[in-house]
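Journal club side-thread
Mid-discussion, someone asked how the predicted structure for our own chain would compare to the paper's figures. Pasting it here so we can look after the session.
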Amino acid sequence: KGGEIRMKKFKISHVFIYLLLILLTLICVVPFYIMVINATHSTNELYTGLSVVPGKYLLDNLRNMLSMVNMPRGFLNSAIVSFSSTFLSIYFGAMTAFGLFEYKFKLKKVIYVLMVSMMVPGQLGIIGLFKLCNNLGLLNTYWPLILPCIANSSTIFFILQYLQSSMSEELLDSARIDGAGEVKIFHSFILPLSKPALSTMVIFNFVSYWNNFFNPMILLFDDKKFTVPLLINNLNSGMLQDLGAKYSAIAISIVPIILVYCLISKRLTSGMMAGAIKS
């Protein structure tokens, strides 16, 4: 009887977990579904209220959107900024985390304090960043959007925590005994063995840089250099807004994010499974 009671409790707990997961999935999926549905309706239909049935104006909305803003150019601009920023943040973040994990030096605690201070929202320092870029002649370029990503404190901290929890000092020492230098250790051991942490930060950083609106709005002035969020914001101009064109622009703007997530999530899962098998 005791075993049957435990089995019933086990099944009830599993049912509760599945119901909770289904609810969370609906909470995440429904807004995207409504957004895609809105992209298929005309502006007049959208003003009449919410609809859950696809409309027939998707192609018209896309044509109107392309006639109002140069979205292909915006995708190219966002790709340049997002991929470059993500690569720099991951590569130099992993390198910094490796240094903090492996080496002992006097100012190590000071660097930890500076890392915490760097987690302050960047919007608070936008005036100083603007003045600095103005003095260096970097305004209306992509450099002030890309170069600061080298010092991404959240990436450094996350990878550092992963190294401290899973990296073996004996493995690195054995590599040094075999004649491997620090650069080779970083590229041949740290980066491959940190794939789960790196994949996680790639997803988070890419989404953050792709959706970044504030810094490009302050630092870019040329329409030809505008990223996707700025072009979507330009659709708000005018008294009569084309809501169908706006929703279609928003809908296609998330496609790169979904593609990156689908590609990276496979490596993230495989890396975690490999680590579980090794352990």
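Post-session note: Residues 273-279 have pLDDT under 50 and may be disordered.
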